[in-house]
Design brief:
The protein has 221 residues and is an alpha+beta fold. Helices cover 29% and strands 32% of the residues.
Length: 221
Amino acid sequence: MNSQPGWYPDPQIQGLQRYWNGLQWSDATRPTPMPGSPVVTKPERKTSSPAQILRSLAGIAVVVIAVAIVFNLINDNNKTDERQEQQQYQQAIETRNDLQSNQTILDPTTYKEISSRDLEVILKDVRASSGQRIVLYGSISQFDSATGPGRFLASIGTSSIGVGNLESAHMVGDPATLKPFVKGDDVKMYVVVDGEFSYTSAADIKFTVPQFQIGMIELVE
């Protein structure tokens, strides 16, 4: 038999042509064209071999595993961030309890009024300034079930009229002392510098802000 693939007279059925793939007769047949009729070629249908199927399945498996790894990494990172935030807050509570046991925390003369530049110096290296007692003014920006009763986020500064008080800060205090205050209140705070606090926002963005312990707080009219 001619080894060239193509259509040839069917060796068993007269009036038909059968496709020879170069090695053997295929199942593809067609009527023998009439003289002068255009020849329409019917390509042999290709079927996937077991090796091709296995390669395809292996590729799908690799993609699934890669997606699972990425998902687990994201999930692990989120859990790590949550644990770190809880550890930071627990440490802040311990510091708050130590400060609350010191009666001088209620003495306004132990706190220093500072300038905006003084605050910038503190914020430049908050950890190095830990323990300093200063007076800050600010507006409470978040104080809800997410923060809990013993802390809130505020835009703080040194201006009693609020102009330029744009630095975001994490404020920690005694829940009983903070109970009368709500989001949007303008306040004057007697605080102790307490390092930094990192948290992840509802938009899944991580922030690190200065942290202050509140000794006294009052509403600014």
